[in-house]
Fold:
Amino acid sequence: MSRVLIIGFGNPLRSDDSVGWRAAEELEHKLSGRGVEVITRHQLTPELADTVSRSTVVFFLDARCGVPGTATCSRVRPQAPTEAFSHQLSPAAVLGLAQELYGQTPLAFTFSIFGECFDAGEALSPQVTKNLPDLVARVAAMACASGIDSPSR
Structure:
């Protein structure tokens, strides 16, 4: 069985910026007990490199700016952080630290939904709300394809 790590990040009090958190929370319920660890954070930090290094596959979930509701998936490759020290890193920089500090680089992907509203608030915009279930289903399917047990129906 593979060790899958899901990291949902963003600000849960900034409307669509919370989509990574919400997706991660739904995936935690859907995939619990199947070799999956779910983490939610406001931002990606250097401390995540250790946890990432002990994973087989990592899914980073976040919101981005663009055509509202559009979802993307991209492979993440390790890259050295651009700053000498930073409290906020990209997924590629977290992978780069895992490789540099622990000699391990898991397979990694970023799933994003383009948000419409990043104002203070807890509600998602209609387009993001509509596409959140598809994002969760896509990540769950990839997690299952990574060797974990199939989620219960």
Q: What stands out?
A: The mean pLDDT is 90. The two ends are 20 Å apart (CA to CA). Strands lie at 4-9, 36-41, 57-65, 71-76, 107-115. The CA atoms of residues 116 and 146 lie 32 Å apart.
